[in-house]
């Protein structure tokens, strides 16, 4: 289902709006307070909201000034998800705090898209999607590990957006960040996600462990202080222009590429992917739940927590080829051997 685009407001619409800086208030806290006031006391459809948590770029620290605000609402209900989400959307409309409220119930991950009236900032609300919250906090922690990480990721995102790689038929910002972070793992700047999980109690979402150590990682990370931001970017272009996507899977969890054929014969996968092996045995009759799924495209990038999820599954062949060609072009332009 294609997302409806929010109509652009005229300059006159925002003329009298007072946009405050983060010093004046925390917009995430404001939105959360508003959502709690509007939704949490709603007893319609015998639905109980158990938690409202922000996630996305404003939590990871990879936001820009006009970034959307993303929230996950955990709820329990005897009603269908479709009816619950419609009910929430109606409450938001009635509040007149949020406008342009569009529930996208048919999307892979159902969301409500809306805009906060007083700030003009867009808001996306998902449901029972707690893994996204953990992913955002993981990214935020990773940014704290090295001063070069955030600027490199932001430069990659801007580059990818400018040439049309990040869109609804291509990469998400999230998946592109992990392509960049995987390069830093290869370079020794970052630990594998498995290493961040070794010494901390599990936090299970379904059967996937979303825990990670928040301690400094000096004992794991090789600082590689001689590498500049441009060195990392050039490694990115060179690495992916040469990467055999037909043969290998990008795995931030392990920190190294995995053979795609091993996902067809899971006993060949490394022991550290025991959770996926177990998941495969329990779900092998349902192809769409498995990592390789029925994706007709070439690019496979494993989610750092949910090992059955390919975060680049939506990338079309056209965007994939554009990505490879763009990397190869910069490799040639920058004389990268």
From TrEMBL:
Transmembrane segments: 175-193
Identification of the protein by name: Poly(A) RNA polymerase mitochondrial-like central palm domain-containing protein
Highest classification ranks of the organism: Eukaryota, Metazoa, Ecdysozoa, Arthropoda, Hexapoda
GO-annotated molecular function: RNA uridylyltransferase activity
Keyword Calcium listed: no
Entry keywords, A to Z: Membrane, Transmembrane, Transmembrane helix
Protein's GO biological process: RNA 3'-end processing
Occurrences of domain Poly(A) RNA polymerase mitochondrial-like central palm (ranges): 21-142
């Amino acid at each position: 289902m294609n997302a409806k685009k929010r109509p652009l407001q005229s300059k006159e619409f925002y003329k009298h709006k007072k946009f405050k800086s983060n010093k004046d208030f925390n917009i995430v806290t404001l939105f959360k307070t508003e959502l709690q006031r509007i939704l949490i006391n709603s007893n319609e459809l015998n639905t109980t909201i158990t938690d409202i948590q922000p996630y996305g770029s404003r939590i990871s620290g990879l936001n820009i000034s006009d970034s959307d605000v993303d929230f996950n609402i955990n709820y329990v209900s005897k009603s269908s998800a479709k009816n619950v989400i419609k009910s929430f959307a109606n409450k938001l409309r009635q509040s007149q705090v949020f406008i342009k409220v569009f529930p996208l119930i048919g999307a892979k991950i159902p969301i409500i898209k809306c805009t906060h009236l007083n700030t003009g900032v867009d808001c996306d609300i998902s449901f029972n999607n707690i893994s996204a919250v953990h992913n955002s906090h993981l990214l935020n922690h990773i940014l704290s590990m090295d001063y070069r990480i955030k600027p490199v990721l932001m430069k990659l995102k801007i580059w990818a957006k400018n040439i049309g790689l990040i869109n609804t038929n291509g990469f998400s910002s999230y998946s592109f960040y992990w392509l960049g972070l995987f390069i830093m793992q290869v370079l020794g700047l970052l630990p594998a996600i498995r290493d961040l999980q070794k010494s901390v109690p599990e936090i299970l979402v379904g059967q996937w462990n979303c825990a990670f150590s928040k301690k400094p990682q000096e004992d794991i990370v090789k600082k590689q202080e001689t590498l500049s931001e441009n060195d990392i970017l050039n490694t990115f272009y060179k690495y992916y222009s040469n990467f055999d996507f037909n043969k290998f899977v990008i795995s931030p969890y392990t920190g190294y590429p995995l053979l795609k054929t091993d996902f067809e014969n899971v006993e060949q996968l490394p022991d550290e992917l025991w959770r996926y092996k177990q998941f495969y045995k329990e779900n092998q009759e349902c192809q769409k739940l498995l990592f390789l799924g029925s994706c007709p495209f070439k690019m496979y990038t494993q989610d750092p927590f949910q090992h059955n999820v390919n975060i680049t599954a939506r990338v079309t062949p056209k965007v994939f080829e554009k990505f490879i060609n763009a990397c190869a072009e910069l490799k040639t332009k920058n004389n990268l051997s």
